[in-house]
Design goal:
Layout lengths: L6 E4 L6 H12 L2 E4 H9 L3 H24 L5 E4 L8 H10 L1 E6 L2 H8 L14 H19 L2 E4 L5 H16 L1
Parallel strand pairs: 1-3, 1-4, 2-3, 4-5
Helix pairs in contact: 1-7, 2-3, 5-6
Length: 175
């Protein structure tokens, strides 16, 4: 890839954005940035704490600032949080500043991948996490579709296979 265009990964929690993003960045010799990790590092606190203290709205404001800043860099692979697409501003920045790849997954697969993860504020202290994932997918999936240049299902592939597929698809886009 002569031109290092930004690659932005969107999709629900548990789709593999961070895992696939790291693999992809390594293969392409690009920097990998995870917006959630970046927010935690800058805040000096984990996302659950930010949610507790500032609520989801406070977290989303931080996320908007960071996505605006990071999408202006060149040659990065950026993994966004599952709810990043809820902001029109974020969707505009992602669309305008790089190739957006929607890593699609089923609610069942999400549930399997996230059920033991204690770092998912939207799934903590809820009676039916599967229903929460179902409800989020109804709202967010159309937004992932709207912003995506490429949509890839992740359920049955390893991160390495997914990263290879993305490299091939991007090379086709770049001609």
């Amino acid at each position: 890839m002569a031109e290092k265009r930004n690659i932005f990964l969107v999709g629900p929690m548990g789709a593999g954005k961070s895992t696939i993003g790291r693999q992809l960045a390594q293969m392409l010799g690009m920097d990998f940035i995870d917006t959630d990790a970046e927010i935690e590092q800058r805040a000096g606190a984990d996302i659950s704490w930010i949610f507790d203290v500032e609520g989801e709205e406070g977290f989303r404001k931080r996320e908007e600032r960071i996505i605006n800043e990071l999408t202006q860099k060149q040659g990065i692979v950026l993994s966004t949080g599952g709810g990043a697409v809820m902001s029109k501003e974020n969707r505009n920045h992602l669309s305008a500043r790089g190739i957006v790849i929607y890593l699609e997954t089923t609610v069942e697969k999400q549930f399997q991948r996230t059920q033991r993860d204690k770092k998912r504020p939207l799934l903590q202290d809820v009676e039916d996490p599967r229903q929460v994932l179902e409800d989020l997918s109804k709202i967010r999936n159309p937004l992932y579709q709207e912003v995506a240049d490429i949509t890839l299902p992740t359920d049955d592939q390893s991160a390495k296979v997914m990263a290879n597929q993305i490299v091939d698809l991007i090379e086709n886009i770049n001609g």
